[in-house]
Known about the structure:
The chain has 4 domains: 45 residues, no CATH class; 155 residues, no CATH class; 194 residues, no CATH class; 56 residues, no CATH class. The chain is built from 19 helices and 17 strands. The longest helix is centred in the last third of the chain and has 23 residues. The chain is elongated, with a radius of gyration of 33 Å. The termini are far apart.
Amino acid sequence: MAVRVYSAEEAYAMLASDSETLSAEDLDYLLSSSSSSLSDNEEPPRQRRRLAARDPHLEPITDWSPPTNYTPQIPAFTATAGVHAQTEGLSELDFFQLFFSADLLQLMVEQTNLYAEQFIAAHPNSFLAQPNRWHPTNCAELLKYWGLVLNMGLNKKTEVRSYWSTDVLYHCPLYRNTMTRPRFEALQKFLHFSDNSQCPPQEDPRFDRLNKIRPVINILARNFSSLYTPKKEISVDESLVSFKGRVKFRQYLPNKRAQYGLKLYKLCESDTAYMYAFRVYEGKDSHIDPPGCPSFISTSGKIAWDLLRPLFDQGYHLYLDNWYTSVPLFKCLLEKKTVACGTVRKNQKHLPKTLINQRLTIGESRALLHDGVLCLKYRDKKDVCMLTSIHDDASTSVPRRGFTSAKMTPVCIQAYNKFMGGVDLNDQILKPYSAMRRSRIWYKKLAVNLVQMALYNSFVLYRKAGNHGTYLEYQEKVIKRLILGEEVGETSASSSNVGRIIPGQHFPGLVPCTGKKRQAQKRCRVCFKKGIRRDTIYQCDTCPSKPGLCMKECFRIFHTSLD
Length: 563
């Protein structure tokens, strides 16, 4: 006779009932199977579900109602938006140095020199440990280094060494005249931002995966938030810094162009794409617990909370995508006088299933309301689900390209399309001028990206101060000041020194006559450098300083040699 097998739940149900239909064999089997399937301290499944359901934040929301005559209660915007720095009379380089501040530059100088000492002490037989191969750097030299790095985003070449090439295809005298290639490569190798000897081991609870770049992150994050306050509409989204090397928190995002890289969470102003706050992804096992955030908020919601925290209670309008959006987050943000709008996934908890599962025709929309949060479903080419605490369920006509008639679209979707693109706009502006080069050192690539974001943020302040010009023109002026260290004009010594070795642009001429001499002469610049006093009747008419040069040999040396 086969013995019937009962599940644990069936066993408890039958034991709790008053039925006497169980045989002795069934009763013995139920008792043995139920006792063996549950540990001494484990509770029955039904009881566990009942205990979990006591948390009100985990219970499904059933009181969704139609938004009849609904008007959202939007808090007043009380923040003082704009620039919080004295900008009158500042040059382009001064704007950049508001973010790339003196303490950040000094940190880089100290840590670079310290790391070079540690490396040479640990590798006494290396090439850079030889005498006169390395000497400590300083602030002036590191500014020139960063100027050359940023210029690589404007003047792209396949390899770093190509910038120092004398080949006619790659010739770029600016780099060879600013510093030698071995010196640039040495600075690039030893560039550092924190003391490795002070980093705790990985087993230590205080270990920080971003330790190698944490000081840079802290200084730039402080400057970003203190120098400018965004306007009312802001957005949160993620960005990717391309990196294919080996690091534990590298991400794969198939929807991004780079796909592999280091992920950043950004909070940007929707209008100007100014990046107010950011956070670097540290891995799925990293602990996120921002102050004041309820424990029942999801991890993605805690990230948005952490970025937005300094802007609470000021009436901001936040726009999110479906990875962050949830009903508990929107309700908690309402308590902080912050309203939000975003797309939402259909399988998100707490949504009204009757609305989500409803079939709509193209152009039709339906909405339900719960505690100031509106859930709306709209049918376009596919279903679009939205959560918003900013808008009602109204729709307005939107003109369509290529069609004579307009279509009715919910107001919340129109606002989302208009204000959600702050982070994407930030990435689009920075992408054409990216100075990052292929590297196995993740924190150096991230540092270049952060410095370029600081450069763009300074451009936003530059425009807010009433100045004009494109971002490209602004970069050119900043880079010239970083490299040449002065206001560059046609007659400046540095610019003429750079321009004198540009091939094919120099032509000899006679020194113009004066009233006293029938044949004017000038001292030869090259002969004077050699300690020889020799006058010549020839000069270079195209060089700004019009130097006197002996024909043939001295003319060639002056326009082809750096020294």
